[in-house]
Design brief:
- By secondary structure, the chain is mainly alpha-helical.
- It has eight helices and two strands; from the N terminus they run H-H-H-H-H-H-H-E-E-H.
- Strand 1 (145-149) and strand 2 form a beta hairpin.
- It has helices at 3-28, 32-43, 45-85, 90-98, 102-111, 118-125, 129-141, 161-179; strands spanning 145-149, 155-159.
- Strands 1-2 form a two-stranded antiparallel sheet.
């Protein structure tokens, strides 16, 4: 689960709970000055003040958590807008952001700004060559890297212009929260 989705669920849960508590406290307290006087006479002044403080705290927590839900949704909307504006389809989004191993593929693309073979990639990234093979095939099938033949039939891989555009977008998305 992505951090923004997790944050959305946490803020939404907090917002619903705190709104429920605030609503309960607001509905169960006596209304008007007469009722407040009766409450403080019956339960003591400290208890009445404590109930008022709890209601105030619940209302502020509720307001802040609903604002956090709105901000998280706005951030997710910005990410979605930037992604769709870049003309990348959902399969690329899944491959590079949502699927398992996405961070490895992003590191691989960053490494391929200069030509490398599979062995060099495995060594530079510190991963198994089988993992490199699988990710190379995925990246090639989506047009994110280019394959070229070197001397003695050795294959070298470099970042395609499409892959460079994707790296630029990912960099822009990772900078987005720091700008706001």
């Amino acid at each position: 689960m992505r951090l923004s989705s997790l944050a959305l669920y946490v803020f939404l849960g907090l917002a619903v709970c705190s709104s429920s508590v605030w609503g309960y406290l607001a509905l169960t307290r006596p209304m008007g000055a007469e009722a407040m006087r009766g409450l403080t006479e019956r339960a003591g002044e400290a208890e009445g003040a404590l109930a008022f403080q709890a209601e105030t705290a619940a209302s502020w927590i509720s307001l802040a958590s609903w604002a956090a839900v709105a901000a998280t949704l706005a951030y997710k909307g910005v990410v979605r807008h930037l992604w769709s504006k870049s003309m990348f389809d959902y399969s690329i989004f899944r491959l590079m952001v949502r699927m398992r191993g996405a961070s490895t593929r992003v590191r691989m693309l960053r490494s391929l700004e200069r030509p490398m073979n599979r062995y060099q990639l495995a060594r530079e990234l510190g991963i198994d060559w089988k993992t490199v093979d699988r990710n190379i095939e995925l990246l090639k099938s989506h047009g994110l890297i280019l394959e070229s033949q070197g001397g003695a039939g050795e294959r070298f891989y470099t970042l395609s212009p499409y892959g460079q555009k994707l790296l630029d977008l990912l960099e822009q998305l990772s900078d987005e929260p720091r700008q706001g």
